[in-house]
Amino acid sequence: MQQHALAARKEEATISEVKAEDATVADASLVKAEKKAPRQNEKPKTRTLDVSSDEAFPTLGGGSVKPISAHVPSGWGAGMFAPIANGNGGNGGSATTSTGAFTPAVQGSSGQSTVYLLPTQKRPASELRRAPIELVKDIMRSTSTKIEMQQTSNQTTVFIISGTEANRQKAHREIHKEMSAKKTVTIKIPAIVRPHIIGKAGSKVQELENMTATRIKVPQMQPSDGPVAEYDDEDTIDITIEGDEYGVPIAVQKINAIVAERTITVTTRIPDIPGELYPFIQGPHRKLVEEYEARVQRVQVPDYFYSAKSQPFSPPSGPIVITGEKQAVQEVRAEIESKVAEFKAAGFHSVLVPVSKAKHPFFTLNKGQLIHEVLAKAGCTVILPEGAKANSLMVYGPSDKIPQGYEEVLKASNSYQLAAIDVCKAYPNAAGGPKLQARDITRYLKRTGEFASLQSEFDLEITTPSDDELYDLQKPCVIQIIGKSTETLNGAKAKIQELYSKLTPGRVLRFEVEPLHHRLIVGKDGRGVKRITDKFPGLGLLLPDDTEEAEIVLIYGGRSEDAEEITKALEGVKEHILSLVEAQKFDVTEKVITIPRDLHAKVQGEDNTTINALNPTSLHVRFGAPKARPGKPAAAASPGDEDKITIRGAKANVDNLALAIQQFVASIPEDGNIPIVTEQFGYPLQLSAQLIGSKGANVNKLRAGLGVEINLKEGQGEIKGIQVAVDAAKRKLNSQIKEHLDKAIEHLKIPQEFHSTIIGSGGNSVRKLETRYGVRIMFPRSGSHKDADGANIPAKQEANEVIIKGGKDGVSKACAEILALWEYEKEKSFTATIPITGRGLEFMFKNASREIKQLRDESSIRLDIPQRDAIEKDEQAIIKIRGTQDEVKNAKTILSKIVKEAEQTTQRSISVEKQYHRSLIGPGGQTLKGIVVGAGGPDDKQALARVVRFPNQDSESNEIVVQGNSAVVDKIVAAIEKIVEQKKNQITETIEIAPEKHRHLIGREGSIRKELEAKFKVTIDIPRQKPGETNTSPDIKITGIAEDVDKAKDHILEIVKEPEGETIEIPTRLYHAVADGGQFIRRLQRDFRVSVDHNGQQRPVKPTEQKPDLSGSLPLITDNEEDASQRFTWEVVESNNQGGEEGDFPWVIRGKPEQIAKAKTEIEKAVALAEQQSSIGYLMLPDSSKFRLIIGPGGSQVEQIRRDTGCRIIVPRNQDVGEPIVMHGSKEGIEKAKEIILGLVKNGDSNGRGRGRGNGDGGV
């Protein structure tokens, strides 16, 4: 590189010498010219200038001066000359570029310049657009100069130009532009410089073309050219410059200057190094790369974290790239290659470490921070495998380092924690399945940025399923959280679970719209979706990414918890969307044409450019067989599907596109090479900026979408590409020209106070006007900007100016409507103002936002309330009210009251240890409510929450914020401090209560405990009993002041005091017959107010009963009028009462003595009855709807049968056909019970009942 720089400097010196020599010659000529220069008001005498004289002009016409050879240095750099090839032009061209190629221009006396055109430099007369003398006249008029044209004996044309220096320069340029011979030169430049020649959006190449009046053709990079620049600075491209003898050399010089500036450094790549060695070349934490970059500009060593296999490893993502001064680059490259040789000689090895795949992301976080730590400590790298080894990591490095690397990977793996949440579990009963609901909520949360916010809040990583996993309804929807702290992990997990639990299936609405109609919803640049979400705040609108998917998902994210209100809101949005579609929709048809598969690429074109040209209406086009879509496998292909092209859209457009495709295919030559054509077109010069677009945006969009080259200059355009693409580009440009020519701009003078009316809430009104009339409406704003067409909008409109821009008809109608609205508002416009401080404004927004919203919603007034962030606390601001007279008066009354309260609001913070917060709030918030209401504050729940705010449980703050009227705030603070002081004097006393009695102190959902805490002003801590555990602690802690604790303790002991009891022993074998599945015990508790237990003993095992097989003898339900009581199945078996366990089983009855006696008598009767239950009857009825006749209201009928027959009767609860009614009792008893039941069924049928299902208990 240094050698190149030296060569460049030598070459630069040579060129400087030549330029100096030319300058000397020019000066000599100037002396001679000045001797004969005309005095003022005298015409110059050109005959004294002999331009054919080698003495006067030694460099002109190839005379006596020795030609300068073009030296091409061995590399790119400052002062270099780019090689020139294929030079041609009207003068025969030259293979070298030198200063001698420029047409001489001699500076004459003050106010004059002389230009010479040699015979070889002239354009043939046949190529001139007008006669030379006419061209000179045109140039004089356009440049405000005076030009004399003479011709010498050797046919050199001399132009003497008089005028200002700037105008002479313009005339000089125009002379060469119109009369110099055309010249074409092709130069080679490094491909890496191409972007700098083109410039951003083509700005640099256009600048060069304008400066030199040339056309510069920079070829597009083809895929076959490979990577550009950064990987190989030896690749070159040919740039062609077309122009005249004067402009082309200047353009070459300018391009060479850019090349010289951009190729001072060299870039090289090392492509053959194994990727698994890249981490060792980087060094721990990239330290070796940093050392290399101290010597060169840049060393790019891609990260190597993954490999699909280990023998050999997968290739790296790219080569190692080094950029800098050549000698330094060569030294760094040699060092890297030397290190690689050492690594290969050392014989690196790998070993697998068992690490769950879920923990793999830990190692690649923060650019592989953990991998670099392992490399620094153990000298080994970590590679993440795939496939069968997915639950392990590879440690790779020198054999002696492998053991330590193994240990470091295990240690690093254990330092991170993982939490996985299958959010499908939040929706077990969702319509369409849990995954469908989880999928759409996940899409919504990703789109709203909720996961990104949680990552920032908790400093961890959250991973959602990939699209393939998300759309596969057979797979779970797992959200993975990775972090170091259990606390942050649990915090994020709780937040995620809360988000999903709030977004219930009732908040989601799905419906289908024809996929091709989705664009009607999206609108231009997505404005349609924004308008919908602005109109319906709190709504999430999810459109499918799949262009063939019809389903649209609406998600309600608002605050309402009312199911009816949510459903109404979602249905409202759905109806709005469907009405939008209905107003614009078109009939969709589908057509399939057959085109050989090998021609599909031609029809598509590179990046779909050809199909874009053929498909101006953006129909949906599918090439070949149906492809797999997200969550939906590809349909089975039929023979010939690969040759099909399927088109969907409006019928006329579909037919047109099908015909266009067929015609295009027919036009493809046999060799498959589609010819490139170039077409010219004209356009109004004043539309140049609009057609080019801001920074070339419009032209670049056409180039990219249609694959054409477009050049626009001074009202003339050129389009180059395949014929269909050129035609499509011309159509688009002509359409744009027509649209721009139809445009109009109107400036309306409307007082600024009416602007908000025209704009509407959230811009809704002005957007409707813009959509209805196809116009752009601009209101005054600070700063300057451009509109979508690239045209400048005034930097600052007048305060009362509204600008309407668009088609003439639309602008006219929009102006009329705006002016009519203004007149209407003027007639009904009343205003009022209310002063408020910044401090009052802050509290007003906090405390009265709902009232302000209600005021806006329930009237047509407009409120102009300053933004609270824009006003200092002590600064005075003004609230403006506008509307009808009555509305303004009412609004002022309401707002004045709100403002007064806000101004009187104060805020205090007190620090209270968190251990006292629960006591201050109290059960169900009762203590806090008592504090606030007692101080004169509100008792409304929401208002109460605004008055006293406690910090979140996760917060480290102890600050309690109290705000409101200053007197109320002081009282609340005093009450809190008093309670806290009392709490500090509290004691905690522990009493032992048997765990089985804890339930008497807890109650349903803690109701008894809360009642005790409120009554005695204490806190009661009862150990939580876990299912299946028998070692629950008996200790109950009571905390409060000593006096209250004593009272609470005495009361609790009284509650759990063991009542007097009596034990009754009954035969163990009869336990289940007496207990009747627990119903008998519950009846004792209900009827006699006693408790029943079994002294801690386990219940006896229930004896097995012999059940008949009734499956083959089910009675049939028919339409026969035969008595339903005659259609039944009856089976009797012997009871197993006399078998089972021997001995007695205790029944302990506790309660009042007289109630115990009654319960004891009832138990004895039940035992006697159970002794008699020697048989079991199974009664099968054909119609389970008759069961309600047997059960009776509240089970009264079946209870009556039990009393009348002494039988235990069980009626099936689920009333499924095939389940019998079971009767336990004596043979006589069950027969009697059967007859009673059949009688009830018979009476029910005769009364016309029995068709419905009954309610009641399933058995007694």
UniProtKB/TrEMBL annotation:
It is found in: Cytoplasm. Its main location: cytoplasm. CDD domains: KH-I_ScSCP160_rpt5, KH-I_Vigilin_rpt6. The keyword Repeat applies. Keywords: Cytoplasm, Repeat, RNA-binding. Transmembrane segments: none annotated. SUPFAM superfamilies: Eukaryotic type KH-domain (KH-domain type I) (SSF54791). One of its GO terms (molecular function) is mRNA binding. Residues 109-180, 181-260, 265-341, 505-578, 587-666, 675-738, 742-823, 828-900, 904-981, 985-1057, 1058-1168, 1173-1242 form the K Homology domain. The keyword Oxidoreductase does not apply. Residues 8-22, 32-48 have a biased composition (Basic and acidic residues). Residues 1-55, 1093-1115 are annotated as: Disordered. GO terms for cellular component: cytoplasm. It holds the Pfam family KH_Vigilin. This is K Homology domain-containing protein.
